[in-house]
C-alpha cells in the first residue's frame, strides 16, 4: 500500500478514481454542511450577532489558508502524506463536537475543522493529477470536479431530509459518517514520488501558468461569492420569491454547473484559453442579465447562464496547473492555489456586503462587470506570456 501511495509507477486511472471519488464526496459534503449549518447554529442556538457569524466564516477560511499556504505547501511528499492522514483524523474527531459547542468553544472547533481541511483538500487535487498520461489525468481531474458538484447537490438534499426530524445540532452527529469515511480512506490516497527536496513556493508564484489559473478562478469567484450571498435575497426582495422558490434558483444554477463539468469529464479540453474566454463572456452576460432583469424569466435565465462558468472555471484552472507543473511541483502549486481561494473566501463576503450597503444589490451586479473585465484583461496578458512554454506531462509521457 505504501509503495502504491508513494509512487506513480503503480497507479492506474481506475485505482485513483475508486479512492478519490468517495473521499471527495465525503469531505466536500461534510465541509459544505458545516459551512451552511454553522451560521444557522450560531444564530438560532447560540444567539450570535451577524458580525460574529461573519467573523466565524472568516476565521474558518483563515485557518484553512494558514495550513495550506504555510505548512502543507512547504513540506516534502512524505511529510505531506503524514500530515494528510493526521489532518483527516483530526477532521473526523473534531466534526461531532459541533453537537456540543457553545458561543465560546465554537471558535475552537471551527478553527480546527478549517485548519485540517487546509491539508486535506489540496492533497486530494494533487492525487488526482498524478497520472502520467495527460488525457487520463485531465479526465480524472474533471471527474474530481464533477464529484464536487454532485456533493453540492446531494449534501444539501440530505441535510434537508434530516432537518425535517431533528435539530441542527443532532444533524452533525449523523453527518459524522462522512469524515469517518474520509479518514479511513486517507491511507490509500496517492502522493507524488519523494524527491528529497522541499517545494519551491517562490517559483510557483513567479510561474505564468500559476497566474493564469489564479486569474481564471478570480474572474468567477468574485461574482459567485456575490450570487451565493445575495442572489436569494435579490430574488425575494426584487421579484417577491418565496424562500423555497429562491432555493430552487440555486438548484438550477448548480444543475448547469454540473452539466459543464460532466462535459469536461467526457471530453477533456484541448485549448484551455478558449474555454476561459467563453467563461468570462458568459459571466459578463449573466451579470448584465441580472442587472437588467425585470421579470422572473430573465432572472431564471441569468442563474442558468451563470451556472455554466461556475462549472468550467475551477476544473480548467486545476487542469492548467497540471499542465504547467511537473509531478514534484504540483503539490506546492495546488496548495497555494487553494490558499488564494481561501483568501478570497475570507475577504469577499465582507467587501461585497459593504458594496451592497452603499449602492444596493441591483447596481452591485453592474459594478462587478468592470471588475471581472479588468481581471480578464490581466488573464489574457498572462496567457500570452505563457505561450511558448513547454507543457508538463504531455499525453503519453512522464509528467
From TrEMBL:
<dbReference type="InterPro" id="IPR036259">
    <property type="entry name" value="MFS_trans_sf"/>
</dbReference>
<keyword id="KW-0812">Transmembrane</keyword>
<feature type="transmembrane region" description="Helical">
    <location>
        <begin position="336"/>
        <end position="359"/>
    </location>
</feature>
<keyword id="KW-0472">Membrane</keyword>
<feature type="transmembrane region" description="Helical">
    <location>
        <begin position="173"/>
        <end position="191"/>
    </location>
</feature>
<dbReference type="InterPro" id="IPR020846">
    <property type="entry name" value="MFS_dom"/>
</dbReference>
<feature type="transmembrane region" description="Helical">
    <location>
        <begin position="298"/>
        <end position="316"/>
    </location>
</feature>
<feature type="domain" description="Major facilitator superfamily (MFS) profile">
    <location>
        <begin position="178"/>
        <end position="399"/>
    </location>
</feature>
<feature type="transmembrane region" description="Helical">
    <location>
        <begin position="212"/>
        <end position="235"/>
    </location>
</feature>
<feature type="transmembrane region" description="Helical">
    <location>
        <begin position="83"/>
        <end position="101"/>
    </location>
</feature>
<protein>
    <submittedName>
        <fullName>MFS transporter</fullName>
    </submittedName>
</protein>
<feature type="transmembrane region" description="Helical">
    <location>
        <begin position="272"/>
        <end position="292"/>
    </location>
</feature>
<dbReference type="GO" id="GO:0022857">
    <property type="term" value="F:transmembrane transporter activity"/>
</dbReference>
<feature type="transmembrane region" description="Helical">
    <location>
        <begin position="143"/>
        <end position="161"/>
    </location>
</feature>
<feature type="transmembrane region" description="Helical">
    <location>
        <begin position="12"/>
        <end position="31"/>
    </location>
</feature>
<feature type="transmembrane region" description="Helical">
    <location>
        <begin position="365"/>
        <end position="383"/>
    </location>
</feature>
<dbReference type="InterPro" id="IPR052714">
    <property type="entry name" value="MFS_Exporter"/>
</dbReference>
<dbReference type="InterPro" id="IPR011701">
    <property type="entry name" value="MFS"/>
</dbReference>
<feature type="transmembrane region" description="Helical">
    <location>
        <begin position="241"/>
        <end position="260"/>
    </location>
</feature>
<feature type="transmembrane region" description="Helical">
    <location>
        <begin position="107"/>
        <end position="131"/>
    </location>
</feature>
<keyword id="KW-1133">Transmembrane helix</keyword>
<dbReference type="Pfam" id="PF07690">
    <property type="entry name" value="MFS_1"/>
</dbReference>
<feature type="transmembrane region" description="Helical">
    <location>
        <begin position="51"/>
        <end position="71"/>
    </location>
</feature>
Amino acid at each position: 500500500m505504501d509503495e502504491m501511495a508513494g509512487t506513480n509507477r503503480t497507479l492506474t486511472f481506475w485505482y485513483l478514481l475508486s479512492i478519490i471519488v468517495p473521499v471527495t464526496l465525503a469531505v466536500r459534503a461534510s465541509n459544505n454542511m458545516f459551512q451552511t449549518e454553522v451560521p444557522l447554529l450560531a444564530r438560532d442556538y447560540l444567539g450570535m450577532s451577524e458580525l460574529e457569524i461573519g467573523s466565524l466564516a472568516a476565521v474558518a477560511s483563515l485557518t484553512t489558508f494558514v495550513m495550506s499556504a504555510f505548512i502543507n505547501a512547504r513540506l516534502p511528499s512524505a511529510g505531506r502524506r503524514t500530515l494528510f492522514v493526521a489532518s483527516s483524523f483530526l477532521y473526523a474527531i473534531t466534526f461531532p463536537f459541533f453537537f456540543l459547542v457553545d458561543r465560546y468553544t465554537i471558535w475552537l472547533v471551527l478553527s480546527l475543522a478549517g485548519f485540517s481541511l487546509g491539508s486535506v483538500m489540496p492533497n486530494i487535487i494533487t492525487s488526482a493529477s498524478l497520472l502520467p498520461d495527460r488525457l487520463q489525468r485531465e479526465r480524472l481531474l474533471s471527474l474530481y470536479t464533477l464529484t464536487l458538484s454532485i456533493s453540492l447537490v446531494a449534501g444539501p438534499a440530505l441535510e434537508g431530509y434530516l432537518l425535517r426530524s431533528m435539530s441542527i445540532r443532532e444533524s452533525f452527529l449523523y453527518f459524522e459518517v462522512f469524515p469517518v469515511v474520509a479518514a479511513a480512506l486517507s491511507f490509500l490516497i496517492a502522493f507524488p514520488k519523494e524527491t528529497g527536496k522541499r517545494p519551491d513556493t517562490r517559483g510557483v508564484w513567479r510561474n505564468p501558468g500559476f497566474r493564469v489559473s489564479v486569474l481564471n478562478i478570480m474572474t468567477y469567484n468574485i461574482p459567485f461569492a456575490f450570487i451565493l450571498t445575495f442572489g436569494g435575497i435579490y430574488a425575494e426582495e426584487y421579484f417577491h420569491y418565496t424562500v423555497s422558490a429562491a432555493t430552487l434558483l440555486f438548484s438550477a444554477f448548480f444543475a448547469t454547473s454540473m452539466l459543464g463539468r460532466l462535459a469536461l469529464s467526457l471530453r477533456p479540453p484541448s485549448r484551455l484559453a478558449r474555454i476561459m474566454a467563453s467563461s468570462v463572456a458568459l459571466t459578463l452576460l449573466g451579470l448584465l442579465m441580472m442587472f437588467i432583469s425585470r421579470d422572473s424569466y430573465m432572472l431564471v435565465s441569468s442563474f442558468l447562464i451563470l451556472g455554466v462558468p461556475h462549472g468550467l472555471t475551477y476544473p480548467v484552472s486545476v487542469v492548467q496547473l497540471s499542465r504547467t507543473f511537473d509531478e514534484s511541483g504540483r503539490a506546492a502549486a495546488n496548495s497555494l492555489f487553494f490558499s488564494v481561494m481561501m483568501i478570497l473566501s475570507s475577504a469577499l463576503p465582507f467587501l461585497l456586503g459593504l458594496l451592497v450597503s452603499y449602492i444596493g444589490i441591483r447596481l452591485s451586479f453592474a459594478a462587478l462587470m468592470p471588475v471581472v473585465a479588468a481581471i480578464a484583461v490581466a488573464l489574457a496578458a498572462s496567457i500570452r506570456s505563457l505561450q511558448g512554454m513547454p507543457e508538463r506531462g504531455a499525453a503519453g509521457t512522464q509528467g
